Amino acid sequence: MNWLLPEYVADALPHEAAQIESLRRAVLDLFRVRGYELVMPPLLEYLDSLLTGSGQDLTLRTFKLVDQLSGRTLGVRADMTPQVARIDAHLLNRQGVTRLCYCDSVLHTLPASQAASREPVQLGAELYGYAGVEADLEAIRLMAAALQRAGTPASRIDLGHVGVFRALAQAAGLDAETEAAVLQLLQAKDIPGLKERGASLGEPYRSAFLRLPGLYGGAEALDKAMRELPQLPEILAALGTLRQLLESMPELPLSFDLADLRGYHYHNGVVFAAYYPGFPSAIALGGRYDGAGKTFGRERAATGFSMDLREVARLATACQQQGAIIAPYATGDPALTRLIASLREQGEIVVELLPGETGVEGVPCDRCIVRRDGQWLVEATH
Description:
Elements: H1 14-32, E1 37-38, E2 44-46, H2 47-50, E3 63-66, E4 73-76, H3 81-92, E5 98-105, E6 121-128, H4 133-150, E7 156-161, H5 162-171, H6 176-187, H7 191-197, H8 205-211, E8 216-217, H9 219-228, H10 233-248, E9 254-257, E10 270-275, E11 284-288, E12 302-308, H11 309-315, E13 324-327, H12 334-345, E14 349-352, E15 365-372, E16 375-380
């Protein structure tokens, strides 16, 4: 049927659309009062701009088409983060710290999971120009606050650090093919596969790779990592950063997973993921990606996070629809026209019935405007 939508693409009907829009306004207002400025990158760009530098991992997820004006290949954005990095590095060109936020649709060639949409509404915040751990603290706290404001508070926030695996791979002398294979096995927590693939590796690195999947949990995971992993300077620095984050945010439900290496080729420091009770996947992801903007002419420290607002809206407690007021057709009655205008200025929903219209479908109407003793009054419906 011609009117059917593609798989994993769906309309947002009035109630869902209202929920998404309500959350969008609430979270963007939260960002605004913390100094994050809203930007709106274009839906499509030249492909080489979308996929340069930090965007290379997006190649398979990006829809491509030919520009009828220039003949060049365009891409429909699959992630807004590279676009925001371009804005910071190339257009704003500020020397100090820059805080930016965004919210709009992106498009994926394939869904991220069986329950995911191919048209997520990506909402996120990025902090540029500060390499210290304080920026990571701000990003994690802001993510937790955004989820709280959306009505989906995180039950667990997992922290990791890609520097641990990167230091082990470099010290063990892994070539690119072996590194990619070990990375994939670690992401799947495939211990038998790790044993087989790592049989040719020397100690202590073979044992270290095998221990990574077991290094998860609370503060004890960091203690265990300090005891069991090689005392490489990069590993000690990474574990020190994670411990500092833990000690600085006692109010948040933090835990650790040193084998969580999603976005390994994109991130280069602390990574974090927020989870909601009963939902199998992370509802918000983030991390440090220093070097953002290098391909646009200016290398910058960067950290941030994003979430799919469609997904969050489905999990959030449904917002209660505001009751509306039914008004009779107001043509020719200045007093009624003024009352309707005044109510709407106060934020009330007023539905003015057209001639012959007897009711309103879809909008919950709990009041009506009636004429009593020569005056127009608002009364509750029975």
